[in-house]
Amino acid sequence: MMQLLHVSDIHFKGKAAGTETDPEKMYQEHILHDVALRTGILGKVDGILVTGDIAFAGKKHEYEAASNWLDSLAAACGCSPSNVYVVPGNHDVDRSVVAKNAAVSNAIEAVWSKAGSDRENALRRQLEDPETSAAILRPIAAYNEFARAYQCQVTSPRLSWENPVRIDGETVLNIRGLHSALLCGWKPNEEQNQLYLGPVQSGTVPSYGTINLVLAHHPPEWMADRFELEDRLLAGPNIALFGHEHRPSVSQGESDCILIRAGSANPDRRENGWQPAYGWIHISMEGTEPDRKAKIRVRQFAWQRSPAGFVAKKYRNGNTESDFKDYLLPVSGTNLVESDSEQEQADLVRSRTSNNDASKITMSDSPTQRPDIRSMLFQIWRLDYADRKEILSNLGLGQDIPTENEDAWVDTCFREAIAKDLLAELGAAIAKKDRV
To answer: Does the pLDDT at position 343 exceed 50?
Structure first.
């Protein structure tokens, strides 16, 4: 079984973010307190899923505050901070970058101004050109610097990332993060049916024994390609998590896809119906082939003013009312994931920048107790550049590779460490530096 915490729209705002003068600190602390209490009842969490709007204006200091809070949230629910998964929202776009840079605004406008297949072709052209591709991603540069510790940075041309994690010996949860804020920033505000994902992001590949869990900030109705998104991504037994709209809800469509909207952990106190909220997802497996199913139990907690605190939303399960909602997803076939080959380990750190694909890093070690590579990558990205370079150079890794693209360089160094059986030494060096 697996437990996941779902938070969204945490909106760390301005220079006061995360400090004692942050006006939202009270509610940030209430969430930490509530999560800690519920962990004592429901058990520890295996992963934290954040569906966008982590910052308020896409600034570096806002992400520093968010990173510290996410560390505290992970500690509160007994989760490793390396098992946080994030996607960007419209507030993670630094709109000043778009406003001040003609190359950036022109690259976004070139896609925004088209419709249908013309928009698809325009996006492909922009992403295939190194200069315009870099321009499109420049407004989320601060987000990407924050997200790479979690191995969730957005890279071109794919824009999405994937991370398969093991539920049990037969079943994999494939977590996939999408960049729904791709066209944000060109206009002061975006409206429904104006944003765009494109077919590369919206397609899922079926696999035996795999449950697809998709993270995106914007719900489908905000996408100009909404119907294609629903056909390609939501027309199957998947789980889709969203943010943006500050009302928590959960539903299951005719295609068995479960749609979960987190609400906002930190909505604007001036908005109508202000109510901070977050969610809790429990996944367990039932039955045997050919009738194997995943039981998805969703809990959502929302703020009440008096007495102040978070309370569980109530749902109907048949003829009874409870503080959770249960769903069943069919899972066909099995996906045995116990291989510990050198090739599989190399796949764990496959470079996003050179292969435009996601790392294959699991939440937990295999039975052979190989080093936790995801945790190691999280730790090394939290170090200063000089410390990273010292550690990798001292082990003789990446000696003949240019370091201008540091993401690619670090990933290549990890692949070399796997090939040279140096993971244990690398892990020890990172841990030693991390304690200094």
So the answer is: no
What is the helix (H) or strand (E) element at residue 322, kind and residue range? Answer: strand 320-322
Q: How many whole angstroms separate alpha carbon 360 and alpha carbon 347?
A: 6
Q: How far apart are CA 419 and CA 410, in angstroms?
A: 14
Residue 336 lies in a domain: no
Rounded to whole angstroms, the Cα distance separating 415 from 417 reads 5
Residue 294, H or E segment: strand 293-304
The domain that holds 313 is classified in CATH as: 3.60.21.10
Last residue of a domain, one of 296, 330, 364: 330
Cα–Cα distance between 415 and 408 in angstroms, integer? 11
Phi, psi of 415 (to 5 degrees): -65, -40
Angstrom distance (rounded) from CA 45 to CA 73 = 10
**240 shares its domain with 381:** no
Contact 385, 406 (CB under 8 A): yes
Burial zone of 410 (CB within 10 Å; 0-12 exposed, 13-18 middle, 19+ buried): buried
Which alpha helices (H) appear in 43-156, and where do they start and end? 60-77, 95-100, 102-112, 116-128, 130-137, 141-147
Q: Which of 301, 330, 359 is the last residue of a domain?
A: 330
CA distance 38 to 314: 16
If asked whether residues 308 and 351 sit together in one domain, one would say no
What contacts 349, CB < 8 A, 6 or more positions away? 359, 361, 373, 377, 411, 414, 415, 418
Cα–Cα distance, 319 to 404 (Å, whole number): 61
Considering the domain architecture, whether residues 378 and 321 belong to the same structural domain is answered as no
Q: What number is the average pLDDT over the span 118-126?
A: 93
Q: How far apart are CA 25 and CA 14, in angstroms?
A: 13
Are residues 370 and 322 part of one domain? Answer: no
Convert the pLDDT of each residue in 363-375 to its tens digit: 333 333 356 899 9
**Full DSSP string of 392-404:** HHHTT-STTS--S
Domains identified in the chain, total number: 2
- 228 & 349 share domain: no
d(CA 81, CA 378): 8
DSSP character for 314?
P
Do 302 and 391 fall within a single domain?
Answer: no
For residue 358, the enclosing domain spans 342-435
Residue type, 58: G
Q: For residue 99, what pLDDT band results from cuts at 50, 70 and 90?
A: very high
